[in-house]
Specification:
Elements (H helix, E strand, L loop, with lengths): L6 H29 L7 H12 L3 H17 L1 H10 L22
Helix pairs in contact: 3-4
């Protein structure tokens, strides 16, 4: 005869694992903010930048992906210096209302 499964125990294990993964992800995001030097921004500036990034067009996201890959490949300090010196790779700055086409203009 088979032993009955304890579904409640399995759900608790899955729930605990999910919470641990969420905490790990949150910690990694905080470490990334620190490593990129973004911790110097106010919370409002950081939130605004992330909101703008979510609505960015594909070409800007691809440029950011390349910059991020360089950041992890070259080392944090070198990539941070390059990002500051190369205005094409710097984070976009939203300076006003969006154009009729819907894309934000860079400052």
């Amino acid at each position: 005869m088979r032993k009955p499964r304890d579904f409640d125990a399995e759900l608790r294990v899955l729930s605990d694992r999910s919470k641990a993964l969420k905490m790990k992800r949150q910690s990694q995001l905080g470490e990334l903010v620190e490593a990129t030097g973004s911790a110097a921004l106010s919370i409002e500036q950081l939130a605004g930048a992330l909101l703008d990034a979510g609505g960015a067009d594909v070409s800007r996201k691809e440029a950011w992906r390349e910059s991020g890959a360089d950041f992890f490949r070259a080392g944090r300090a070198c990539a941070r210096k390059e990002a500051r010196s190369d205005p094409r790779r710097a984070a976009p700055r939203h300076t006003g209302p969006q154009s009729p086409s819907g894309d934000a203009r860079l400052a």
